[in-house]
Amino acid sequence: MTAPHSPPASAAPRVNPLQRLWLRELGMERLWLRPAPQPQAAPAAMPQVPVPKQESPAATPQVAVSKQESPAPAMPARVGAVPARDAAAPPPASAVRPAGPGPGLRNGPPPKPAPKAEVVTDAAPAVIPVAEAVKNATLDELREQVVACTACGLCGGRRHAVFGHGGQPTRWLVVGEAPGEQEDRQGQPFVGRSGQLLDSMLSAVGMSRERDVFIANVIKCRPPGNRNPKPEEIAACSPYLMRQIALLKPERILVLGRFAAQTLLGTDSTIGSLRGRVHQMKTEEGREIPVIVSYHPAYLLRSPAEKARAWQDLKLASRQL
Protein backbone atom coordinates (compact mmCIF):
# COMPACT_ATOMS: atom_id res chain seq x y z
CA MET A 1 0.00 0.00 0.00
CA THR A 2 1.40 3.16 -1.08
CA ALA A 3 1.96 5.82 1.68
CA PRO A 4 0.32 9.13 1.12
CA HIS A 5 2.52 11.74 -0.39
CA SER A 6 3.58 14.27 2.26
CA PRO A 7 4.31 17.86 1.32
CA PRO A 8 7.82 18.91 1.27
CA ALA A 9 9.09 20.26 4.53
CA SER A 10 10.00 23.55 2.94
CA ALA A 11 6.49 24.34 1.73
CA ALA A 12 4.49 27.04 3.61
CA PRO A 13 1.26 25.97 5.31
CA ARG A 14 -1.88 26.49 3.32
CA VAL A 15 -4.34 29.16 4.51
CA ASN A 16 -7.70 30.12 3.14
CA PRO A 17 -8.51 33.67 2.19
CA LEU A 18 -10.28 34.35 5.46
CA GLN A 19 -7.28 33.21 7.49
CA ARG A 20 -4.99 35.29 5.31
CA LEU A 21 -7.10 38.36 5.87
CA TRP A 22 -7.06 37.69 9.63
CA LEU A 23 -3.28 37.19 9.65
CA ARG A 24 -2.87 40.39 7.71
CA GLU A 25 -4.84 42.28 10.27
CA LEU A 26 -2.59 40.90 12.98
CA GLY A 27 0.58 41.68 11.04
CA MET A 28 1.63 38.04 11.04
CA GLU A 29 1.02 37.17 7.42
CA ARG A 30 4.69 37.19 6.45
CA LEU A 31 5.81 35.34 9.53
CA TRP A 32 3.21 32.68 9.06
CA LEU A 33 3.64 32.19 5.33
CA ARG A 34 7.52 32.32 5.43
CA PRO A 35 8.94 28.84 4.64
CA ALA A 36 10.74 27.10 7.50
CA PRO A 37 14.55 27.07 7.32
CA GLN A 38 16.11 23.88 5.98
CA PRO A 39 18.61 22.09 8.25
CA GLN A 40 22.17 22.26 6.93
CA ALA A 41 24.47 19.33 6.86
CA ALA A 42 27.45 19.48 9.16
CA PRO A 43 30.72 20.17 7.37
CA ALA A 44 33.27 17.45 7.12
CA ALA A 45 35.72 17.41 9.98
CA MET A 46 39.02 18.99 9.15
CA PRO A 47 42.17 17.07 10.10
CA GLN A 48 43.73 18.50 13.29
CA VAL A 49 47.22 19.86 12.60
CA PRO A 50 49.36 20.05 15.78
CA VAL A 51 50.45 23.61 16.47
CA PRO A 52 53.80 24.01 18.25
CA LYS A 53 53.40 25.54 21.71
CA GLN A 54 54.94 28.96 21.91
CA GLU A 55 56.50 30.18 25.05
CA SER A 56 54.65 33.04 26.60
CA PRO A 57 56.58 36.28 26.43
CA ALA A 58 58.15 37.63 29.61
CA ALA A 59 55.65 39.39 31.73
CA THR A 60 55.91 43.08 31.32
CA PRO A 61 56.36 44.67 34.72
CA GLN A 62 53.23 46.43 35.66
CA VAL A 63 53.85 50.01 36.54
CA ALA A 64 51.52 51.06 39.26
CA VAL A 65 49.77 54.15 38.22
CA SER A 66 48.56 56.12 41.16
CA LYS A 67 44.99 56.95 40.92
CA GLN A 68 44.62 60.58 40.35
CA GLU A 69 42.48 62.03 42.98
CA SER A 70 39.62 64.03 41.81
CA PRO A 71 40.07 67.71 42.56
CA ALA A 72 38.32 68.96 45.61
CA PRO A 73 35.20 70.92 44.97
CA ALA A 74 35.80 74.60 44.70
CA MET A 75 35.07 76.43 47.93
CA PRO A 76 33.37 79.79 47.91
CA ALA A 77 35.79 82.67 48.22
CA ARG A 78 35.88 84.41 51.59
CA VAL A 79 35.40 88.13 51.89
CA GLY A 80 38.79 89.80 51.99
CA ALA A 81 40.67 86.57 51.10
CA VAL A 82 43.71 86.86 48.87
CA PRO A 83 43.06 85.13 45.51
CA ALA A 84 45.14 82.03 44.95
CA ARG A 85 48.10 82.52 42.65
CA ASP A 86 48.06 80.64 39.42
CA ALA A 87 50.41 77.67 39.52
CA ALA A 88 51.79 78.56 36.12
CA ALA A 89 52.46 82.14 37.05
CA PRO A 90 56.00 82.95 38.26
CA PRO A 91 56.36 83.58 42.00
CA PRO A 92 56.68 87.17 43.15
CA ALA A 93 60.14 88.62 43.57
CA SER A 94 59.69 88.84 47.35
CA ALA A 95 59.13 85.06 47.51
CA VAL A 96 62.25 84.11 45.52
CA ARG A 97 65.00 83.00 47.86
CA PRO A 98 68.64 83.46 46.93
CA ALA A 99 70.21 80.50 45.22
CA GLY A 100 72.23 78.26 47.42
CA PRO A 101 72.56 74.65 48.52
CA GLY A 102 69.46 73.33 50.17
CA PRO A 103 69.45 71.36 53.39
CA GLY A 104 69.89 68.10 51.46
CA LEU A 105 72.82 69.38 49.36
CA ARG A 106 74.84 70.95 52.16
CA ASN A 107 78.20 69.30 52.76
CA GLY A 108 79.17 68.66 56.33
CA PRO A 109 77.20 69.41 59.50
CA PRO A 110 74.73 72.30 59.50
CA PRO A 111 76.24 75.63 60.54
CA LYS A 112 75.75 76.75 64.09
CA PRO A 113 73.30 79.61 64.55
CA ALA A 114 74.92 82.97 65.02
CA PRO A 115 74.87 84.04 68.66
CA LYS A 116 72.40 86.77 69.44
CA ALA A 117 73.95 90.11 70.13
CA GLU A 118 73.45 91.09 73.72
CA VAL A 119 71.68 94.39 74.09
CA VAL A 120 73.63 96.41 76.59
CA THR A 121 71.59 99.13 78.21
CA ASP A 122 73.04 101.75 80.42
CA ALA A 123 71.81 101.03 83.88
CA ALA A 124 70.22 103.98 85.59
CA PRO A 125 72.54 105.39 88.20
CA ALA A 126 71.60 104.55 91.73
CA VAL A 127 69.84 107.39 93.46
CA ILE A 128 71.62 108.19 96.70
CA PRO A 129 69.43 109.77 99.37
CA VAL A 130 70.39 113.32 100.27
CA ALA A 131 71.14 112.34 103.88
CA GLU A 132 73.73 109.81 102.69
CA ALA A 133 75.21 112.10 100.04
CA VAL A 134 75.85 114.95 102.48
CA LYS A 135 77.07 112.82 105.35
CA ASN A 136 80.78 113.57 104.90
CA ALA A 137 80.59 116.62 102.64
CA THR A 138 82.54 119.77 103.38
CA LEU A 139 80.87 123.19 103.17
CA ASP A 140 82.11 123.74 99.60
CA GLU A 141 81.04 120.24 98.54
CA LEU A 142 77.68 120.79 100.17
CA ARG A 143 77.22 123.99 98.19
CA GLU A 144 77.89 122.12 94.93
CA GLN A 145 75.40 119.42 95.88
CA VAL A 146 72.70 122.00 96.54
CA VAL A 147 73.29 123.69 93.19
CA ALA A 148 72.98 120.33 91.37
CA CYS A 149 70.18 118.91 93.51
CA THR A 150 67.13 117.32 91.85
CA ALA A 151 65.69 115.60 94.92
CA CYS A 152 62.26 117.21 94.51
CA GLY A 153 60.23 118.89 91.80
CA LEU A 154 61.22 122.42 92.77
CA CYS A 155 64.45 122.08 90.79
CA GLY A 156 62.46 122.26 87.55
CA GLY A 157 61.26 125.83 88.09
CA ARG A 158 64.16 127.48 89.82
CA ARG A 159 66.63 130.00 88.47
CA HIS A 160 69.16 129.58 91.25
CA ALA A 161 69.40 127.27 94.21
CA VAL A 162 70.03 129.39 97.32
CA PHE A 163 72.64 127.72 99.49
CA GLY A 164 73.13 130.49 102.04
CA HIS A 165 75.55 133.24 102.87
CA GLY A 166 77.26 134.70 105.91
CA GLY A 167 80.30 135.12 108.06
CA GLN A 168 82.48 132.41 109.57
CA PRO A 169 83.00 131.53 112.32
CA THR A 170 79.27 131.70 112.86
CA ARG A 171 77.84 133.06 116.08
CA TRP A 172 74.22 133.14 114.93
CA LEU A 173 72.58 130.97 112.35
CA VAL A 174 69.41 132.61 110.97
CA VAL A 175 67.07 130.09 109.33
CA GLY A 176 64.20 131.14 107.07
CA GLU A 177 61.62 129.08 105.20
CA ALA A 178 62.29 129.28 101.44
CA PRO A 179 63.67 131.70 98.82
CA GLY A 180 61.33 134.30 97.31
CA GLU A 181 61.35 135.85 93.87
CA GLN A 182 64.33 138.14 94.47
CA GLU A 183 66.31 135.38 96.21
CA ASP A 184 65.70 133.09 93.23
CA ARG A 185 66.96 135.79 90.86
CA GLN A 186 70.13 136.59 92.79
CA GLY A 187 70.90 133.25 94.40
CA GLN A 188 71.31 134.89 97.82
CA PRO A 189 69.13 134.55 100.95
CA PHE A 190 66.99 137.39 102.33
CA VAL A 191 67.40 140.10 99.71
CA GLY A 192 64.88 142.72 98.74
CA ARG A 193 62.64 144.42 101.32
CA SER A 194 62.53 141.50 103.75
CA GLY A 195 66.32 141.20 103.62
CA GLN A 196 66.74 144.90 104.32
CA LEU A 197 64.47 144.62 107.37
CA LEU A 198 66.42 141.60 108.65
CA ASP A 199 69.73 143.44 108.28
CA SER A 200 68.31 146.35 110.32
CA MET A 201 67.07 143.99 113.06
CA LEU A 202 70.46 142.24 113.31
CA SER A 203 72.31 145.53 113.34
CA ALA A 204 70.14 146.67 116.27
CA VAL A 205 71.65 143.88 118.43
CA GLY A 206 75.19 144.25 117.09
CA MET A 207 75.11 141.42 114.51
CA SER A 208 76.03 141.42 110.79
CA ARG A 209 75.67 138.81 108.08
CA GLU A 210 79.06 139.80 106.71
CA ARG A 211 80.85 139.23 110.00
CA ASP A 212 79.26 136.70 112.38
CA VAL A 213 75.79 135.67 111.10
CA PHE A 214 75.13 132.97 108.51
CA ILE A 215 71.70 133.06 106.83
CA ALA A 216 70.10 130.01 105.21
CA ASN A 217 66.69 128.49 104.44
CA VAL A 218 65.08 125.12 105.05
CA ILE A 219 64.13 124.93 101.35
CA LYS A 220 66.90 125.81 98.92
CA CYS A 221 64.66 126.37 95.86
CA ARG A 222 61.76 128.77 95.45
CA PRO A 223 58.26 127.23 95.54
CA PRO A 224 56.07 128.44 92.64
CA GLY A 225 54.17 131.61 93.51
CA ASN A 226 55.87 131.74 96.93
CA ARG A 227 53.47 129.07 98.20
CA ASN A 228 54.13 127.22 101.43
CA PRO A 229 56.64 124.35 101.21
CA LYS A 230 55.14 120.88 100.97
CA PRO A 231 56.06 118.21 103.54
CA GLU A 232 57.84 116.09 100.93
CA GLU A 233 59.88 119.09 99.82
CA ILE A 234 60.91 119.81 103.40
CA ALA A 235 61.83 116.15 103.94
CA ALA A 236 63.96 116.11 100.77
CA CYS A 237 65.80 119.37 101.48
CA SER A 238 66.21 119.50 105.27
CA PRO A 239 69.34 117.23 105.30
CA TYR A 240 71.25 120.09 103.67
CA LEU A 241 70.31 122.38 106.54
CA MET A 242 71.25 119.79 109.15
CA ARG A 243 74.64 119.36 107.54
CA GLN A 244 75.13 123.14 107.49
CA ILE A 245 74.43 123.26 111.22
CA ALA A 246 76.91 120.44 111.85
CA LEU A 247 79.61 122.23 109.83
CA LEU A 248 79.01 125.83 111.00
CA LYS A 249 78.53 124.96 114.69
CA PRO A 250 76.59 128.15 115.54
CA GLU A 251 76.25 129.38 119.13
CA ARG A 252 72.56 130.35 118.61
CA ILE A 253 69.89 129.65 116.05
CA LEU A 254 67.26 132.28 115.25
CA VAL A 255 64.33 130.66 113.46
CA LEU A 256 62.08 132.93 111.37
CA GLY A 257 58.65 131.67 110.36
CA ARG A 258 56.34 128.78 111.20
CA PHE A 259 57.64 126.16 108.77
CA ALA A 260 61.26 126.71 109.80
CA ALA A 261 60.36 126.47 113.49
CA GLN A 262 58.29 123.31 113.05
CA THR A 263 61.03 121.67 110.98
CA LEU A 264 63.90 122.32 113.40
CA LEU A 265 61.92 121.64 116.56
CA GLY A 266 59.93 118.69 115.21
CA THR A 267 56.56 120.08 116.24
CA ASP A 268 53.30 121.27 114.73
CA SER A 269 52.72 124.04 117.25
CA THR A 270 51.89 127.57 116.12
CA ILE A 271 54.54 130.25 116.05
CA GLY A 272 52.65 132.22 118.70
CA SER A 273 53.10 129.38 121.19
CA LEU A 274 56.74 128.80 120.28
CA ARG A 275 58.12 132.34 120.47
CA GLY A 276 59.06 134.12 123.73
CA ARG A 277 61.15 131.25 125.16
CA VAL A 278 64.37 129.37 124.49
CA HIS A 279 64.27 125.88 122.95
CA GLN A 280 67.11 123.40 122.75
CA MET A 281 68.14 121.53 119.63
CA LYS A 282 70.32 118.45 120.04
CA THR A 283 72.73 117.74 117.19
CA GLU A 284 73.96 114.34 116.04
CA GLU A 285 77.17 114.92 117.98
CA GLY A 286 75.12 115.33 121.17
CA ARG A 287 75.64 119.07 121.37
CA GLU A 288 72.69 121.26 122.39
CA ILE A 289 72.12 124.60 120.65
CA PRO A 290 69.69 127.27 121.96
CA VAL A 291 66.87 128.00 119.46
CA ILE A 292 64.80 131.23 119.52
CA VAL A 293 61.66 131.49 117.38
CA SER A 294 60.41 134.74 115.87
CA TYR A 295 58.28 136.11 113.02
CA HIS A 296 59.43 136.15 109.43
CA PRO A 297 60.43 139.63 108.12
CA ALA A 298 57.94 139.28 105.23
CA TYR A 299 55.17 138.86 107.83
CA LEU A 300 56.40 141.90 109.74
CA LEU A 301 56.16 143.97 106.56
CA ARG A 302 52.50 143.00 106.29
CA SER A 303 51.87 143.33 110.04
CA PRO A 304 54.03 146.20 111.41
CA ALA A 305 52.39 145.93 114.85
CA GLU A 306 54.21 142.61 115.42
CA LYS A 307 57.64 144.26 115.19
CA ALA A 308 57.60 144.90 118.96
CA ARG A 309 57.34 141.15 119.65
CA ALA A 310 60.10 140.48 117.14
CA TRP A 311 62.31 142.96 118.97
CA GLN A 312 61.70 141.06 122.21
CA ASP A 313 62.77 137.85 120.51
CA LEU A 314 66.02 139.44 119.35
CA LYS A 315 66.84 140.64 122.87
CA LEU A 316 66.10 137.15 124.22
CA ALA A 317 68.62 135.72 121.77
CA SER A 318 71.22 138.32 122.69
CA ARG A 319 71.01 137.46 126.37
CA GLN A 320 72.02 133.90 125.61
CA LEU A 321 75.52 134.99 124.59
From TrEMBL:
Q: Compositionally biased, Low complexity: which spans?
A: 39-52, 76-107
> Which reaction is recorded as catalysed by this protein?
Hydrolyzes single-stranded DNA or mismatched double-stranded DNA and polynucleotides, releasing free uracil
Composition-biased stretches, type Polar residues, lie in: 57-69
Q: Which InterPro entries match?
A: UDG_Type-4/5, Ura-DNA_glyco_family4, Uracil-DNA_glycosylase-like, Uracil-DNA_glycosylase-like_sf
- Carries keyword Metal-binding? yes
Enzyme Commission numbers on file: 3.2.2.27
Where is the Uracil-DNA glycosylase-like domain positioned along the sequence?
A: 163-315
Q: Keywords for this entry?
A: 4Fe-4S, DNA damage, DNA repair, Hydrolase, Iron, Iron-sulfur, Metal-binding
Q: Would you tell me the protein name for this molecule?
A: Type-4 uracil-DNA glycosylase
- Which species? Achromobacter ruhlandii
